[in-house]
User: What shape does this take?
Amino acid sequence: MTPRRRRSPGLLPILVLVVAAGLVLISCGPDDTPSSSRAVPGLDRGAEVYASSCASCHGADMRGTDKGLSLLSILYEPNHHGDASFRSAIADGAPQHHGTFGDMPPVEGLSVDDVEAVIEYVRAEQARLGFEG
Assistant: This one.
């Protein structure tokens, strides 16, 4: 009796593995979907509050206006102006200490949840867009 030779598994299992790995890598790649069409759960409320209460001075794109500084300025990074600074400025206003825009008045009519939502939104946008010098 002649011994049987073992058959090699062939290329099919290797091909399946390569295709599966490729699909995983593609699904983990960068998301090229424009931010305006990408829903971010939990940030929608912050975006609404920002648009209605902050954008007129700090800009719809957070890059400032003739009434207020850009929130993308490195001055507003968390190690310089932490979340507590944002809470205080929103609730009590803030004296001018950067730029020449004058004092920031308190923002009236926001709940604690509104304030937290807008801070979360601003921080997410800062992380997404980066800071400017």
